[in-house]
Records
---
Amino acid sequence: MDSVKIIEIKKSVFEDNNLDADSLRKELRLKGVFLLNLMSSPGSGKTTTLIRTINLLKDKLRIAVMEADIDSDVDAVKIKEATGIPSIQLHTGGMCHLDAEMTRQGLDNVDLEGLDLVILENVGNLVCPAEFDTGSSCNAMILSVPEGHDKPLKYPLMFSICDVVVVNKMDVQPYFDFDLEKCTEYVHMRNPKARIIPISAKTGEGVEEFAAWLLDAVKSWKNQ
Amino acid sequence: MHELGIVFYIIRDVKKAALENAVDKISAVVMNIGEVSTIIPDYLQDCWRWAADKEDILRGAELKCNIIPAVTYCEDCGMEFETVRFGKKCPHCGSESTYLLRGNEVEIKEIEVPNQ
């Protein structure tokens, strides 16, 4: 006998994660903690940008950071040393992204009492993190000048889910064929509402604008 | 690797469905994979073999992928067109007010269970 019985399932692979993410979002809302999911390619300057931003905001907001990487704790240590705020490292065990369940497990290790903002530094990757909702209140990403202005064309999903696109390493723009106007046009093709903030995490240029956006986002979320 | 993460999700969902249906052996899992879902079926197969064979209930089980062609709909002229060939811009009227109708699926369609 080679006949088989068929059991119909008809279910998206992302469905469970989307439900987990929604319930995490509700819990964080009750606790009054804003979760920012920050994504980018490896090496775009997420950690350096965060250090600058946190140092501008740490007197105005109570902040903690969760670093997600495949291995090592260099980022978490760097953040803690440079800003003095609580920072924990998550390991994804080889996975290329964080999902809502992993985010929740990470948050279980953060003292959320009295916090305003948790920043999740997702695994450096422009593909998978875009597909897995972490339960965040808001998504942002960093694109750096050496990566090229055509990235929004190549990774449409990532750019379509982000409220803010930070363009980092503007200080080295003269050495690259990076066209900020084209980049803006391509991002807006995918996501007309996305705000674009050019910065240099190295020199500090533009970081105040990003910090002001973040402060405003947290405050207006809390007042909703 | 992207596909490996997806495979872990498939395995989790399939094991749950097996439990609900009191099934202890699965011979195949049938997927609907959209043409623009960013899943590469060959990689998915490789990851599947590696991960599925570690589970008693799925050892040797085949992964079958139905590819769903991507179709975009134009809000201005109401026509449908092939997403991969034409992209976002409608080839009929030139409008960019278009959206993806199908082709983004990563869906478990059904599981096949040996008849006992």
---
Amino acid sequence: MNIHEYQGKTLLREFGVPVLEGVHCTSVEQALTAYDNLNSKIVAVKSQIHAGGRGKGTLYHPQTRQEVMQGGVKIAFSKDEVETYATNILGNVLVTIQTGDEGKIVKNLYVESGCDIAHEYYLALLVDRDNKSVLIMASTEGGMDIEHVAEHTPEKIHKVVIDVNAGLLGFQKRDLGNSLGLSGMALRSFAKTLSAMYEMFVSQDCAMVEINPLVRTSNDEIVALDAKISFDENAEFRHKNWAQLRDLSEEEDVEIRAKETGLSYVKLDGNIGCLVNGAGLAMATMDVIKLYGGEPANFLDVGGGADEEQVKTAFSMIMEDPNVKGILVNIFGGIMRCDIIARGVIAATEALSLKVPLVVRLAGTNVEQGKEILAASDLNIHPANDLAEGAQKIVSLIGGDE
Amino acid sequence: MMAIWIEEDAKVLVQGITGKQGMFHAGKMVEYGTQIVGGCTPGKGGQTVELEGKDFPVWNSMTEAITATDADATVIYVPPPYAAEAIMEAAEAFDTVKGEGVVICITEGIPTLDMVKAVAYVNNRPGIRLIGPNCPGIITPGETGGAKIGIMPGHIHAKGRIGIVSKSGTLTYEAVAQTMSINEGQSTCIGIGGDPVNGTGFIECLAAFENDPQTVAIVMIGEIGGNAEQEAAAFAAENVSKPIVGFVAGSTAPPGKRMGHAGAIISGGKGTAEEKFEAFKQAGIACANDPSEIGSVLLQALQDAGLR
């Protein structure tokens, strides 16, 4: 689960990480008041969306798609400039390298004081799968695309692996600071910042904290100038405050509803809907559709114990997508029995008066009963014996519409 | 030694045996023929649970349960907030009572930082092996019955000579069905789970299958996210002489989106299926483009190795 920069900075401030004064705004008027209150010669006017590359993004008018402004993060030297930038940002669509061509409508703005920057660094805390631990990554190459740095100058990325049962140790903070060339007051400020960030990472169940750039000011203070924070959704049960931090407008409505009903759904661009049990098999089903020349419309895992009602919900979610021209159901019954799935499929098909072609592949527990139930119905359901056959059938069935 | 880590007659405890999931699956395991010796639910010690018409004892702690039963393994069906602690309790109890044991955690949705702690804890106890979490478990089919420890449908398996290791549950079942389609059974099938931080990985499974006399060939199924598959491929190229058939799920997954499993995400352009398939091919692993092809690719690999 991602949060906005302005929310991340509030959290960082709570844990004692130095951040600049800033105000979250949702209107141009608020931005102008913020400028007056911040009392800073220069301010940054920053688009708040859940995607990186905001600074180098482009703003477009939501209806006409006419370009409004280059750059979703602007430095303003006057109140007039704040007004111009805020007007150009709010309500318009920001397209960045991470949003896709559709972009995202900007509804939130962060107006932040400026500071004198002596140097920009990169700092990130994340869970490292290789070491099965928390990893801190830092680089002197702040403000840049870190993947580019990692590829071209990997020696400029410094890493520290934390033993979670020992915590972040003093020498690790000093070593990392030294490798960034910090000393004296700046090194002490860095060490303190790092401790605060590590404490936040662990206590808040973060999945990733990325500060790019982390800056050293001309006064040798370390300040977090940006904040990209995400949480581990598995830990939501012990963080009641996340509900308020979640920006539902950043998530696909149908994906949220799927989660509420215990399904896992991801929308894709194709036209063949899929309904599968198990995440790995659901991915494989999409892959095989593509292999036989089709395009999957979604990833949908109904889980290991779906009942008739969930199968029905899953079907209605698939059919909400106007691109869907056919559906492939692929179930390997383990705990889930094929006869129950077959009944669920029939009930859903009838309830939704399904018009598109439907291919059903059943395997595993009670497969024979499942197949009999489908065959006995007078609905237009095409059976398949394995995944390849199922994919080929659905691709050829929708072929005429292409 | 026959099969890996879990022998056909392994004695197994169930943590969370009094819960809905635990009781249901414990029953299925008994039905399959797994030697369930009891369970553990704190606060319910002294009670019994009836499975398939037979009573099984419940203990308050894993130390008591292992001491009383000399269990070889435990399977965890404890809800996410308490699962990591259940893993650590089992690890400590096995280590103290007998110096070894296999801990299988089925639970899905455990906080990642809880797993970081639990894995470090288990790794401090070298005799303890953790499988999972968020996995179907491990099964060593027998001539009759066998040891099914987890949630997989037992009846699709048969004792044989193919080792299977996978990150995904239903895709493992698919692989099992594919081996059966060419009249091959399984030595041991392991679901290592789809979480970013887990216990046993591909490499340990490959090494164990290589050393297992019952296993003659291996099916390895990965998915997008991380680079465990690439590392396993590099390991296999150097250390595994037995034929391996590989598949990776998620060729069509969009970057930056979590595909059901917490660990199944392409981030920063890394962890794609293409990368993993390429690593498999480089390592001489025979790849199936489609799970329905696993059987035929495996048959070819067995023929090439003079095993059919």
